[in-house]
């Protein structure tokens, strides 16, 4: 018969965490690929909209500087061109700049889901080209002017406008190309006015500078896309973290519900099981002791003894499960009082002495009789001692020795140490031994069968007292269990209880 593992149960309940993560990644990749296929620039729709949004913000922010730049250029052109022509040129530039700014504001005010990104991108490209044409018309002023300084001024203006245009339209590369084309054409047209070597050199340098600005614009676009992708990945991670937190909260809620159901089940079943179990124990003890007369067959008495022993074993198992459930649920209440740790250990050793003598085992005691009292729960402390002594007797071979130590810790607390000469536990099996119903492979082969709840109960009770639990074991060298209690539970270390003192009232005599 094949064993049903936790992994198989998890698969039956649904996909594992790794499988769910892989499915989410595949779905995200498919959605991203679908958006890239429907996009005109090869990016997801969210990236496409974000690039246009950044462009619109750049354009709105550059409105006032461009107006100032156009007015300054028109004012400077008065020195070498008619004022009417400069004013007309400035009015045209301001009209186009204002129209582009209005389109950018309208774009930002619309619902992103209802926008047609292709149409918006076409409007941006056309707007950039028209605006660059308006700036490039500055060359027409040089038709009636022969001054070399005027050509140099216009060339300088065209280079500045090219730099501004490529930087503002960097997030829409086609708009940057469309905006730079009229400016490069206007700069090249200056060669028609003069073919001197100096003019050719200046025009060549101006065109190279404009192309360099276009190169910088492409790099700025790549950096913006990389930043958007990084932000999208970060948002996706945050989304996955939120989903994981929601899943964790849901799993914790289900675990709490399951724990509550388990507690209710154990509370109900403990009553339902103990009622018939008490009858089994009582009647089997009557039959075992032959209270109403001897049995007709000697085997009946042996069967009655087996029934009684099995009932006791089942009762102990039920009690251990209930104790562990209360400890794990945090419902184990401590009834603390002042106790002598050495006396509790000695009492436990006396109770387990019969089992040890049956296996010809000996106790070696190193107990400090001067230890002060300990503030602890007597029932829990006795259960701790009995559990670790029971394990030591169980796993120690016949004729072995069990060493019991009780004394001070280095921090001023008290400790109990029980060391046996049994088979020991491999290091990799210690976590299994400390888990509920866990037993080591070597111990199963060489010792009596148990429920595997003794050590978990001991550790839980020790934790309730704020103490420490340590298990040291090596194969064929035995096992040592050390239980420590903090110094705050030693009676000599506890501060005295302060009582309110009332000073005697002296009678006041009347004068």
TrEMBL record:
UniProt KW keywords: Coiled coil, Kinase, Membrane, Phosphoprotein, Transferase, Transmembrane, Transmembrane helix
The protein's name: histidine kinase
Gene Ontology, cellular component aspect: plasma membrane
Reactions catalysed according to its record: ATP + protein L-histidine = ADP + protein N-phospho-L-histidine
EC number, UniProt record: 2.7.13.3
Annotated transmembrane regions: 60-80, 86-103, 124-143, 155-178, 190-216
InterPro entries listed in its UniProt record: HATPase_C_sf, HATPase_dom, His_kinase_dom, HisK_dim/P_dom, HisK_dim/P_sf, Sig_transdc_His_kin-like_C
EC class of the enzyme, as a word: transferase
Gene Ontology MF annotations: histidine phosphotransfer kinase activity; phosphorelay sensor kinase activity
Residue ranges, annotated region (Disordered): 1-21
Coiled-coil stretches noted in the UniProt entry, renumbered to this chain: 234-261
Keyword Transcription regulation: no
Gene3D superfamilies: 1.10.287.130, Histidine kinase-like ATPase, C-terminal domain
Domain Histidine kinase, chain residue ranges per copy: 268-489
Organism annotation: Methylobacterium tarhaniae
Taxonomic lineage: Bacteria, Pseudomonadati, Pseudomonadota, Alphaproteobacteria, Hyphomicrobiales
């Amino acid at each position: 018969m094949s064993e049903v593992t936790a992994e198989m149960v998890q698969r039956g309940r649904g996909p594992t965490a790794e499988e769910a993560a892989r499915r989410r990644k595949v779905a995200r990749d498919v959605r991203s690929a679908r958006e890239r296929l429907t996009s005109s620039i090869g990016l997801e729709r969210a990236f496409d909209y974000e690039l246009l949004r950044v462009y619109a913000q750049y354009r709105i922010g550059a409105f006032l500087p461009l107006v100032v730049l156009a007015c300054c250029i028109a004012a400077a052109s008065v020195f070498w061109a008619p004022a009417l022509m400069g004013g007309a040129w400035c009015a045209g530039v301001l009209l186009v700049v204002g129209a582009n700014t209005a389109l950018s504001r309208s774009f930002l005010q619309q619902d992103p889901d209802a926008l047609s990104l292709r149409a918006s991108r076409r409007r941006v490209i056309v707007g950039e080209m028209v605006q660059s044409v308006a700036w490039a018309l500055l060359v027409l002023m040089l038709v009636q002017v022969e001054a070399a300084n005027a050509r140099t001024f216009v060339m300088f203006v065209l280079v500045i406008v090219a730099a501004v245009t490529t930087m503002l339209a960097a997030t829409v590369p086609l708009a940057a190309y469309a905006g730079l084309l009229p400016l490069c054409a206007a700069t090249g047209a200056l060669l028609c006015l003069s073919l001197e070597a100096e003019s050719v050199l200046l025009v060549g340098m101006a065109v190279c500078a404009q192309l360099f600005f276009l190169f910088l614009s492409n790099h700025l676009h790549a950096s913006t896309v990389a930043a958007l992708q990084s932000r999208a990945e970060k948002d996706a991670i945050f989304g996955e973290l939120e989903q994981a937190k929601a899943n964790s909260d849901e799993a914790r809620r289900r675990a709490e519900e399951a724990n509550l159901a388990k507690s209710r089940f154990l509370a109900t079943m403990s009553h339902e099981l103990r009622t018939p179990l008490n009858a089994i124990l009582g009647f089997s003890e009557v039959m075992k002791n032959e209270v109403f007369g001897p049995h007709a067959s000697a085997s009946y008495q042996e069967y009655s003894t087996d029934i009684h022993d099995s009932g006791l074993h089942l009762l102990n198992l039920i009690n251990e499960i209930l104790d562990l459930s209360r400890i794990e649920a945090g419902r184990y209440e401590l009834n603390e009082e002042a106790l002598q740790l050495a006396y509790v250990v000695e009492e436990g050793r006396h109770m387990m002495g019969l089992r040890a003598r049956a296996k010809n085992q000996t106790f070696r005691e190193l107990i400090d009789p001067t230890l002060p009292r300990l503030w602890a729960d007597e029932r829990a402390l006795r259960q701790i001692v009995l559990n670790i002594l029971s394990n030591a007797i169980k796993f120690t071979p016949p004729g072995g020795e069990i060493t019991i130590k009780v004394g001070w810790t280095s921090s001023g607390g008290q400790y109990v140490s029980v060391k046996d000469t049994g088979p020991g536990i491999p290091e990799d099996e210690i976590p299994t031994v400390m888990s509920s119903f866990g037993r080591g492979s070597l111990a199963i082969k060489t010792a009596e069968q148990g429920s595997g709840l003794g050590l978990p109960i001991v550790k839980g009770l020790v934790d309730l007292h704020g103490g420490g639990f340590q298990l040291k074991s090596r194969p064929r060298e035995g096992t040592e269990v050390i239980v420590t209690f903090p110094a705050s539970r030693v009676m000599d270390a506890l501060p005295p209880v302060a009582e309110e003192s009332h000073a005697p009232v002296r009678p006041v005599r009347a004068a």
